[in-house]
Structures are given as structure tokens and as C-alpha cells.
Design goal:
The chain has 120 residues and is of the alpha+beta class. It contains three helices and five strands; from the N terminus they run αβββααββ.
């Protein structure tokens, strides 16, 4: 992948994450963190609504099907490890129900929010 393509993909990903954060806020979620990184993994968005803590992965591709296929089991494990690190750093979130969501983004469409997309 050329450097220019990499930069475009990065910008498209950041724009998609911003759009997803906005959509989550409109759905009543409070955004607690964005781009949470630890050595074991990364979480795109951490959001809370009521007693639920949503760990959200954003996938932006040309179609919803491509976006859905882009989340591998290896990535799911890395996200889960990052979620454990987040919970360790934020003890106030310990009593919440943790849920793993995916938001699929395709051009010129609203993000598709899949709640409880996978379990550990």
C-alpha cells in the first residue's frame, strides 16, 4: 500500500469513528474514551448508556458485507484484552455490563450498529 493510500485510509477511518461517536451520542450513549490504546490492543470507542459499557469497534469498507468480514477473531481477542485493561484502569466501570459492539460504515450511509456482536 502506498503512503498516499495509507493516509487516505487513516483519514477515512478517523472520519468514520467520529461519525459513529456522533451516532452513539444521538442514541443516548456517553462517550467515555476514543482510540484507547494499550500494548495488548486498541478500542475505537468506549461508550456508556445506563448500566451498559459498550466496547465498540468501527469498521469502514466499501460495503457492509466487507466491513462485517473485516473483524477477525484475532482482532476480537485483542479488543477483549484492551477492554480488560480499560476496566483495570477505571474501577468505577467494574459494576457495569460489558458488551462488545461493532459499527459498520460504508460510504454515504449511516453507520450500522450491531449490539452484542460477539461474546468472550
Amino acid at each position: 500500500m502506498t503512503e498516499a493510500r495509507r493516509r487516505r485510509a487513516y483519514r477515512r477511518g478517523r472520519l468514520s469513528e467520529t461519525l459513529c461517536r456522533l451516532m452513539l451520542r444521538l442514541k443516548g450513549y456517553r462517550i467515555l474514551a476514543a482510540g484507547f490504546r494499550v500494548p495488548v490492543g486498541e478500542i475505537d470507542i468506549v461508550a456508556r448508556r445506563g448500566k451498559t459499557l459498550a466496547i465498540v469497534e468501527v469498521k469502514a469498507r466499501a460495503s457492509l458485507a466487507e466491513a462485517a468480514e473485516a473483524l477477525s477473531s484475532h482482532q476480537q481477542r485483542r479488543i477483549a484484552r484492551a477492554a480488560e485493561a480499560y476496566l483495570a484502569l477505571h474501577p468505577s466501570a467494574a459494576g457495569l455490563v460489558v458488551r462488545f459492539d461493532v459499527m459498520l460504515v460504508q460510504p454515504w450511509r449511516l453507520p450500522h450498529h450491531l449490539t452484542n456482536a460477539w461474546r468472550l
